[in-house]
Amino acid sequence: MGTGASRNVVTDAGGRYVVATLPIGGYDVRAELSGFRTEVRRGITLAVGMQAVVDLVLTVGNLQEVLEVTAEAPHVQTTSSAVSELVDAKTMRELPLNGRNFVQLATLQVGVVNSDRARGNFPLSSGTGMKFNVNGARDNSNSFLLDGQDIQDVFNSTPASGGGETLDVDTLAEFEVKTANFSAEYGKAAGAVINAVTKSGANSVHGSALEFLRDDKLDAANFFDNAFGSPKPAFSLNQFGATLGGRWFATRPSTSAVTRGFGKTEASRGSSSSPAMTRAEACCAIRRPASSSRSPSRPPCSHISICCS
């Protein structure tokens, strides 16, 4: 409905029909046959990976007579036994994220936990992306799809840039996390299938601008800063960008075909400084005897192996 595009199909002898590879979004379904009254079903919303069953019953009447029914497609999936959860645009937009990486939202699903191999610990052997385990499977047993295309990295793991970030939430329309019982069409995943769809253009032009700020002036001091009267380490991170989508131009002036698109640009800028005292030194300082005359900045370190083990 956002683009005004239409698809026409003919049912078989039993009245069955299938319309495959439809983009996500809102749809109207219209059925007509000579000698019968036309029926229109409005308000059908397709999500990523969804198979909507829309049954229409034509009654005898004039073709010009139209019966309109407004109803959403049923949320109970009768065509699949897969265990899955949809993360829609509203969830991605309103939940706070450190870095605005959509992969973080996968851990909200049942059976999904962060991997012990934290992001960036083994960049030369397992990639830089955020890793998670699903139902006990390895973190490299997950499959990532973007608009139907496999986007695994070279290590068959979470795709990410050199900085460890995947696509941000402003680029995606929604994504689905399939954790069990998904069909063989997905394949090669013993863990989960993360199926994401990017935003696309519509007939109307729309866009947005964003700015996210993290700064030490807005942070509370941690335990060790308070214990030793140390100043908070300097930290500042700005993420800013803009999106723009819509109908650009007709591909052929003599036809109704048009080109629609969606684009996003984003940049980040940050700075930080290391605290004057390391965690190991702080552990030792807090454990030293009260009668010690040593400076907290140079504590005795006989307890490092105990407090940091």
Q: What does it look like?
A:
With 309 residues, this protein is mainly β. The protein has four domains: 1-79, no CATH class; 83-198, TonB-dependent receptor, plug domain (Ferric Hydroxamate Uptake Protein, Chain A, domain 1), CATH 2.170.130; 206-272, no CATH class; 278-309, no CATH class. It is 9% helix and 30% strand. It is built from five helices and 13 strands. The chain has a five-stranded mixed beta sheet. Strands 1-2-3 form a three-stranded mixed beta sheet, with no helix packed on it.
In a nutshell, what does this entry contain?
With 309 residues, this protein is mainly beta. The chain has 5 helices and 13 strands.
Sum up the structure in keywords.
mainly beta, disordered C terminus, 309 residues, 5 helices, Ferric Hydroxamate Uptake Protein, Chain A, domain 1, 4 domains
Helix content: under 10%
What is the beta-strand fraction?
A: 25-35%
CATH top-level class of the largest domain: Mainly Beta
What is the tally of helical segments? 5
Strand order, main sheet: write it out.
4-9-10-7-8
Which runs of at least 5 residues are low in confidence (pLDDT < 50)?
Answer: 276-309
CATH topology of the largest domain: Ferric Hydroxamate Uptake Protein, Chain A, domain 1
Strand segment count: 13
- Rg value: 27 Å
Morphology = elongated
At CATH level 2, the architecture of the largest domain is: Beta Complex
Rounded to the nearest angstrom, the distance between the terminal CA atoms is 59 Å
- Count of folded domains: 4
Mean pLDDT: 79
- Largest sheet composition: 5 strands, mixed
Given the helix and strand composition, which structural class is it?
Answer: mainly beta
Give me the strand/helix succession. EEEEHEHEEEEEEHEEHH
CATH homologous superfamily assignment of the largest domain: TonB-dependent receptor, plug domain
Oligomer: single chain
